[in-house]
Design a protein that fits this description.
The chain is of the alpha+beta class and about 280 residues long. About 45% of the residues lie in helices and about 15% in strands. Strands 5-4-1-2-3-7-6 form a seven-stranded antiparallel β-sheet, with helices on both faces. Strand 1 and strand 2 form a beta hairpin. Helix 2 packs across helix 4 and helix 6 packs antiparallel against helix 7. The protein starts with about 25 loop residues before the first helix and ends with a helix.
């Protein structure tokens, strides 16, 4: 990654501290604060002649596809990087966002089976408010779709890039007659990424435990193909269970049906990545 920008030399703790983001969604809804996120540490400023131009720094940051890393680490480097990452979140990440209410299949006498999808896609940005709409619902099925979606008690699945969670966003509102959903971009992005950061913490601990087990097996000279396969399977299982664990902690109970729905959504994203 590029070196910190020149303004880092002028950023004193009084000017730019963790308290500046005290009300920020990524920390306020999380069990950890931004000061505990990786990368939030004092960094010696680079000589000015070795610092990349601001435009190039932003371009490089835009290539980071792990949004939780950009939001939870790079955004905390300096004021300039904070502005860069938040600009990317507001102008680009939000455009890759989908908000999905579980649909349902109904029977139409003329067509037969019809699956009604409650997926809201990005439409526009009105100031700091992101506007999403269901754009492909045939008029004759609109009332049925609204009835199905209004009966759903669970929070919709929110997909931002490759991240999917069903965290409740209190600021989100839906105007069902027009199939329009609105939400300020910051809590939308921040709360979903905060959930992914919690998953990363558990996932990292699981990987660490697995690698320690592997080291013990190596010392015993017991590292055959079966052991290697078992370790890989353990890592994959740890990743899947991390999502379920974090969600259960947030909800206060285990919701297997909801966990499965989110797993299917993540698999669908992975498949799209393979063929994109």
């Amino acid at each position: 990654m590029p070196s910190p920008p020149p303004d880092r030399e002028q950023d004193s703790e009084a000017e730019y501290s963790d308290n500046d983001d005290a009300g920020d969604d990524a920390s306020s809804v999380s069990s950890f604060s931004e000061s505990e996120l990786p990368g939030n540490r004092s960094i010696a400023p680079m000589p000015e002649h070795l610092t990349l131009p601001t435009e190039l720094q932003r371009l490089i940051l835009s290539f980071e596809r792990e949004y939780q890393k950009a939001w939870g680490t790079y955004r905390l480097v300096s004021k300039t990087w904070k502005e860069h990452v938040e600009c990317l979140a507001k102008t680009e990440w939000v455009r890759e966002t989908f908000i999905d209410y579980p649909g349902e299949t109904i029977w139409d006498p003329e067509i037969g089976k019809v699956h009604l999808s409650g997926e809201f896609a990005f439409d526009s940005l009105d100031g700091d408010t992101a506007v999403f709409k269901i754009k492909d619902c045939a008029p004759q099925f609109k009332d049925a779709l609204i009835e199905i979606c209004e009966q759903i008690d669970d929070s919709p699945a929110i997909e931002i890039g490759e991240i999917v969670h069903d965290v409740q966003i209190p600021e989100m509102s839906v105007d069902w007659p027009t199939l329009t959903l609105t939400c300020p971009w910051r809590p939308l992005i921040g709360r979903i990424i905060a959930e992914e950061l919690r998953v990363d913490v558990i996932r990292a601990a699981s990987r660490h435990e697995t690698m320690n087990t592997m080291k013990k097996l190596k010392r015993k000279g017991d590292v055959g193909m079966d052991a290697m396969f078992g370790m890989l399977k353990s890592i994959a299982g740890g990743t899947a269970s991390a999502y379920d664990t974090v969600r259960a902690q947030r909800l206060g109970y285990t919701d297997k049906e909801g966990d499965e729905r989110l797993r299917d959504a993540r698999k669908a994203i992975s498949m799209r990545q393979l063929f994109s």
